[in-house]
Amino acid sequence: MPQLRRGVNISGADFGEQNLPGVLGRDYTFNSEATYRYFADRGLNLFRIGVKWERLQPVPGGPLDPAYLDGLRRNLDWAGRADGAAVVNLQNFARYQINGFEYILDNSPAITRQRLTDLWVRVSTELRDHPALYAFGLMNEPHDLGPAADWKEISQFALSALRDSGDRTLIMVAGDNWSHADEWPEVHGPDSWIDDPANRFAYEAHLYFDADRSGKYLLSYDEELRQNRRLPSVGVDRLRPFTDWLSRNHVIGYVGEYGIPGDDPRWQDVLESFLQALDAASLDGTYWSAGEWWGDYPLSVQPDALFQAEKPQLSVLARHL
Questions:
Q1: Which of 91, 114, 314, 317 is the most exposed place for a label (fewest CB within 10 A)?
Q2: Which CATH superfamily is domain 6-318 in?
Q3: What tens digit of pLDDT does each residue of 16-61 get?
Q4: For residue 98, what are the β-bridge partners?
Q5: Model pTM score
Q6: Is 6 helix (H, G, I), strand (E, B) or coil?
Q7: How far is CA 87 from the centre of its chain?
């Protein structure tokens, strides 16, 4: 794996899940070059760019949408100009919507592992040689697949097909059941499941610090503290099962999402202790989240429209580059 990188998620092209595929500028957006430059100038130069399968490939198994692909390629260009690198991440939770109906991966002939693989081989053919490409994220937070689907088999199938096509890009393999870091051994068992002839993959976990681990932070800090007296070190506690599993299996990991509200400085101490543990484990990481359409979203580190007002979480992130 190349040098350790830290960065941010770039949200926007994955917005508008209630109206897929949606309309550019109304339901979703591609962020401007200024956003990439802003974070790269502060040392956060790994960009996890969320995209939607329904927009990349409007018909499963069919051609890629040229306009959406051009928007994604333009964002990769901007990441590169800022001396950054990008993870192209499929923000679909192992689902695909057709005419408002949600299909679960490998639970219907309409949406299968073969269709997922077809998408990634097409994307790889278009983007694998882009100088700013760091990795492909096979699928964001697969969950509740049911007995008809096996995420381990699906992820191996897609990775193998990419390698057979000649792709040697780093592949981020998310965990099942929302990719929770603290549940990793429980959900996936004791052993690594990916067999990669290129040895260019990393297991991707996500980690939030609130009681239900959702990242919604519905409770105040004081309410959270009453439920968990170890709240100041909860990130360390929740990361350890994942890092121990990686170490036992001699494989590489990545924490694709972690974030805190900006309205209470005590959350910054929680983030600080977590980042110290992430440093010690030598893992890549991308904060959730940035993007020009977030507005007053509490976890956002996107600055104001003039790119002048800095969010409080940023100073903590900047200490761990």
A1: 114
A2: Glycosidases (3.20.20.80)
A3: 999 999 999 999 999 999 999 999 999 999 999 999 999 999 999 9
A4: 101
A5: 0.97
A6: strand
A7: 8
